[in-house]
């Protein structure tokens, strides 16, 4: 590794960040410096190596063929360095960092975390609530919770729960809903950015979205659920979003039927992440709690823990 003495690590970090992120501004933001400083570090690295890693074009820097190969290896190396630092920090402070969508965290996980503290009292769980898809291979997180099809390249994804949807409303409004077609008579609350449509639930009941009337529109599923609790209409909810509201009686599901969206909840870790007993315990606890909250509300049989290790198509 003596060749590393010729090039400053700061310059290599700059080259890797620009190569991975595609431009100076993004690299500067990640490294906490100015774009000019990043440009200077890239130039210093090229001078020390005696090779051009980027071509200078009107639109900015572009990796040369050699630069592509170099950056691939630099990214792999920086990733391992990041893991080493993160591991030391977490072991020193006893922290387990989980990346999760804010809606999942606020509507379900925060109400359950005391249960995990009883299982693993020596570990403090830090929730990184972000709508962005964090890469556990490079980010300072131990695991991510994602909703999707599970086809995530470069990571290990373990199935936890299928996403199923069902109408919810407050108890008073539910009194007027005797059959699915009665949805035509009440306001419908919509989530502007939902990954599914009302037809997911209506079609199995021989209906379609044309029967639905108007109602308030929100840009967030949590707000849609709150609107349903407040009596503004009927909202198409899912587990675990609605589990606490249903269990506490704030909302009810007027119809028993639940139908899958094709999406599932996945526990995602780095592709080459080594086994961490705290992560394993958190995964097992989280999966069991998800299954329990769904089974507890719907009365459906719960799969065994071994079943949760297999993708839905294999069960």
Structure description:
With 315 residues, the chain is α/β, with parallel strands linked by helices. It has three domains: 2-89, Winged helix-like DNA-binding domain superfamily/Winged helix DNA-binding domain (Arc Repressor Mutant, subunit A); 91-160 and 262-298, D-Maltodextrin-Binding Protein, domain 2 (3-Layer(aba) Sandwich); 163-261, Periplasmic binding protein-like II (D-Maltodextrin-Binding Protein, domain 2, 3-Layer(aba) Sandwich). The protein has helices at residues 9-21, 24-31, 35-49, 65-93, 102-107, 113-119, 171-174, 199-202, 221-229, 243-248, 277-298; strands at 54-57, 60-63, 95-100, 124-129, 143-148, 155-168, 188-191, 217-218, 234-238, 259-270. Residues 296-315 have low confidence and may be disordered.
Biggest sheet overview: 8 strands, mixed
According to CATH, what is the class of the largest domain?
Alpha Beta
Structural class: alpha/beta
Radius of gyration: 24 Å
What is the structure about, briefly put?
The chain has 315 residues and is of the alpha/beta class. Helix content is 39%, strand content 20%. It contains 11 helices and 10 strands.
Layout of SSEs?
Blueprint: H1 9-21, H2 24-31, H3 35-49, E1 54-57, E2 60-63, H4 65-93, E3 95-100, H5 102-107, H6 113-119, E4 124-129, E5 143-148, E6 155-168, H7 171-174, E7 188-191, H8 199-202, E8 217-218, H9 221-229, E9 234-238, H10 243-248, E10 259-270, H11 277-298
Parallel strand pairs: 3-4, 3-5, 7-8, 7-9
Antiparallel strand pairs: 1-2, 5-10, 6-9, 6-10
Helix pairs in contact: 1-2, 1-3, 1-4, 2-3
